[in-house]
Design goal:
globular; binds nicotinamide-adenine-dinucleotide; alpha/beta; about 10% strand; two-stranded antiparallel ribbon
C-alpha cells in the first residue's frame, strides 16, 4: 500500500552552459531586483567576476568561512542592511551558498545560487551555522534559493581531489535519501536517478576535470540527490558525518566520501528496496559492489585517520551518534555494531 505525503520545494533550475552571466541576470531581473549582494570568496572571485559584469551589484562580499561561523554571518547581514540590497547572488561552493542562506534567514532576501562544487546546498531549505564548536542546522523556507543557475564551465577549475570528494558527498545525499527519516517513494525515485547520473559523470570528471559532459552529468546527479535528501531528511550517514565533523573538525566532503561505503554495507542487508534501486542505478549486481567500483575508479579517500580523526575519537563519537540516529534506520544500531562501523571507517578497511 502506498501511503505518504511528499512536499516538493518550489525553485527554478537553469542549466546554462557557458552562459551563467546572462542566465543570472535574467533570474535577478525576474525577481524585480536592482541592488545585488554578490557573495563569493576570494578563491571564487575569478568565477564571479564575469557574472558580476552583467548585474546591478551594490555590494561584493568575500568573507566566506566553512560551516558559517555566527560572527561571519552577522557581518554579512550588517553589510547587506547597510548597502540596502534586495537580492543575494552566491557564486561558489557549499560554504558560499551557506553564507547566502544565513543572510536570507534573518532578512528574507531572495537568493540566486550559482554553485561551483557538487555540495547541493542550493537545492535544500536547510541552513547551518557554527557557534564556537557547536554546529546547528535548521529548516526554513526563506533560505531555499529562488533560482539555481548551473554552468558546467565554472567547475573546470575544481582540483581533482576536491571534485571527487564533493561528487561523493553528493552521492551520499542520494544514498542516505533512500532511508532518511521521511524517505518516500518519490525521494527513492529521484535518488536512484541521482546515483545513475553521478555514477556516469564522476569517473569522467576524475579522469578529465575539464570534461563539460562529465561535469554536467555530475551536476545533474548532485542536484537530484540534494532534492531527494532535502525531502527525506538526514539519515544515519549524515548523522555520523555531522557528529564526526563537529567533534574532530574534519573536512566535510572527504568525511562523507570515507563514511559512505560503511553505512551502505551496514544498511543494505535490511533495506532490500534501496539495495535493489542503488544496484540498478550503478548497473551492478549489488549496491555495495557498485559503490566499490565507483570509488576505485575515482580513487576515493579511504580512512578517517588520514584526515586527523584520533583513534580514541571512536568511543567518544558513539554515544552522540546513537542519540542522533533516526529510529527508523533499516539496521538497528547498537554500541557494538556502530563501534565496528566507525573503526572500519577510521582504519579504511574494505573501503
Ligand atoms: P566549500 O564551499 O568550502 O569549497 C571548498 C573549497 O573549494 C573552497 O576553498 C572554495 O573556495 C573552493 N572552490 C569552490 N568552487 C571552486 C571551483 N569551481 N574551482 C576551484 N576552487 C573552488 O566546500 P563544499 O564541499 O562545496 O561545501 C561544504 C559546505 O557546504 C559545508 O559547510 C556543508 O555543511 C555545506 N553543505 C550544506 C548543505 C545544506 O543543505 N545546507 C548541503 C551540502 C553541504
Amino acid at each position: 500500500m502506498l501511503r505518504f505525503t511528499h512536499e516538493s520545494l518550489g525553485q527554478r533550475v537553469v542549466f546554462a552552459p557557458s552562459d551563467a552571466a546572462s542566465a543570472v541576470a535574467a533570474e535577478v531581473s525576474a525577481l524585480d531586483a536592482s541592488r545585488v549582494m554578490l557573495i563569493a570568496s576570494d578563491r571564487e572571485a575569478a568565477l564571479a567576476d564575469p557574472i558580476a559584469t552583467g548585474l546591478p551589484v551594490a555590494l561584493r562580499h568575500e568573507e566566506v568561512v566553512m560551516h558559517v561561523p555566527v560572527p561571519v554571518a552577522e557581518r554579512a547581514r550588517a553589510a547587506a542592511a547597510e548597502a540596502d540590497v534586495d537580492v543575494i547572488v552566491t557564486v561558489g561552493g557549499g560554504s558560499t551558498t551557506g553564507l547566502g542562506k544565513a543572510v536570507a534567514l534573518t532578512t528574507g532576501l531572495p537568493v540566486v545560487s550559482v554553485p561551483t562544487t557538487y555540495a547541493g546546498s542550493e537545492a535544500t531549505d536547510v541552513w547551518g551555522l557554527t557557534d564556537g564548536e557547536t554546529k546547528s542546522t535548521g529548516v526554513d523556507a526563506r533560505v531555499l534559493p529562488r533560482s539555481v543557475v548551473y554552468d558546467a564551465t565554472l567547475l573546470t577549475s575544481l582540483p581533482a581531489d576536491l571534485a571527487v570528494a564533493s561528487g561523493l558527498n553528493a552521492l551520499a545525499h542520494g544514498v542516505d535519501a533512500m532511508w532518511g527519516p521521511r524517505a518516500d517513494p518519490i525521494d527513492a525515485a529521484l535518488a536512484g536517478e541521482a546515483i545513475r547520473g553521478l555514477a556516469e559523470g564522476l569517473p569522467v570528471v576524475a579522469k578529465d576535470g575539464s570534461s563539460l559532459d562529465g561535469i554536467e552529468h555530475t551536476l545533474y546527479g548532485a542536484y537530484l540527490a540534494a532534492v531527494a535528501f532535502a525531502s527525506a531528511g538526514s539519515g544515519l550517514h549524515h548523522k555520523i558525518c555531522h557528529v564526526l565533523g563537529g567533534m574532530f573538525n574534519l573536512p566535510h566532503a572527504q568525511t562523507h566520501s570515507v563514511v559512505l561505503p560503511h553505512v551502505l554495507a551496514f544498511n543494505a542487508p535490511h533495506a532490500p528496496d534501496a539495495e535493489r534501486r542503488i544496484a540498478a542505478a550503478f548497473g551492478t549486481d549489488t549496491a555495495v559492489d557498485g559503490l566499490a567500483a565507483l570509488r576505485a575508479a575515482v580513487d576515493a579517500p579511504r580512512a578517517l585517520r588520514d584526515f586527523g580523526m584520533p583513534e580514541d575519537g571512536i568511543p567518544k563519537a558513539v554515544p552522540p551518534i546513537l542519540a542522533a540516529a533516526p529510529a527508523n534506520n533499516p539496521t538497528p544500531l547498537t554500541e557494538e555494531n556502530l563501534t565496528a562501523l566507525l573503526r572500519a571507517a577510521w582504519e579504511g578497511e574494505h573501503a
